[in-house]
Amino acid sequence: MKRSLLDILACPICKGDLDLIVEEEGDEEILAGKLICKKCSVEYLIEEGIPNMLPPELR
Amino acid sequence: MGILENKKRARNFYRYFSKIYDGINPIFYSDEMRELVVDMAEVDSGCKVIEIGCGTGFTTGEIVSRLGEETVTAVDLTPEQMAKAIARFPSVNFIRGDAENLPFKSDTFDAAISAGSIEYWPNPLRGIEEMTRVTKSGGKVVILAPRKPDNFAVRKFAESIMLFPSTQQCVAWFVKAGLNDIRYVEKGPYFFWNKLVVIISGKVP
Question: Which residues 86-105 of B have a C-beta within 8 angstroms of A?
């Protein structure tokens, strides 16, 4: 995912803002890492550049 | 309840079906239909568009041909289907997500489009409400849904596979979601099968 995507992403459950933790970054994209909801603390993994924003029960 | 309505079941089905999907989908979903879907979203270059249930990217291709890839965001539940769309349009913003729990801030997009996905949503009204929430005031929400077949026997068969909402049901959901200026077109890929789907649009107040 592009870093700019963080401006529009929100927690799918509570719609809270997200913190980004980068584990691996390419030239333009974040390849691995996680997004953590500032409100409800649920974590969403970024794998192979794609954030998995499914609520935990649908993963 | 049709056999594909449950999200986990739909996901498992597409994990295997994705291998042959691109050969079958154009039989039911013509170029003319996908052009109409994007026409009804009333978007120009520079517009930010969200597509819900992008699958292998059949409708994504039509959106990208008009807007380019950078301002398009596409969501799908199934990684196997989405892998093909990612290979085709590498600069589109792809996200794994659920239609009924969209992972976006409110008032983010100029239009929200979903073609051939609503039949898998257990709570279609909630999905339409989510599309409305993430779209800016004045923007369009557009959905293509398979229509409830008119013939009784065909309808019973179709309903055993998945959810086929009627046109009236779709209009009712759009009204309930608070959308204005609701318009719809019933359309099909062939002259002898000309009311296979309903394409419906509404404006965010």
Answer: 86, 93-98, 101-105
Are residues B102 and A9, on separate chains, in Cβ contact within 8 Å? no
Go through the domains of chain B in sequence order and give each one's CATH number: 7-203 (3.40.50.150)
**A35 is in which domain, residue-wise?**
3-58
Residues of A engaging B, defined by a Cβ cutoff of 8 Å: 1-2, 5, 8-13, 15, 44, 50-55, 58
For chain A, the domain total comes to: 1
Closest Cβ opposite residue B98 in set A5, A12, A50: A12
User: Does the interface ipTM go beyond 0.90?
Assistant: yes
pLDDT in tens, B71-118: 999 999 989 889 999 999 999 999 999 999 999 999 999 999 999 999
Q: In sequence order, which residues have a C-beta less than 8 Å from that of residue B29 and are 6 or more positions away?
A: B58, B115, B116, B189, B197
**In B, which residues are within 8 Å of A53 by CB distance?**
75, 95-98, 103
Count how many pairs of residues, chain A against chain B, have C-beta atoms within 8 Å: 55
* Residue B119, C-beta contacts closer than 8 angstroms, at least 6 positions apart: B2, B4, B5, B145, B146, B162, B163, B164, B165
Supply the pTM of this predicted model: 0.87
B24 pLDDT higher than 60:
no
Secondary structure of residue B164 in the 3-state scheme: coil
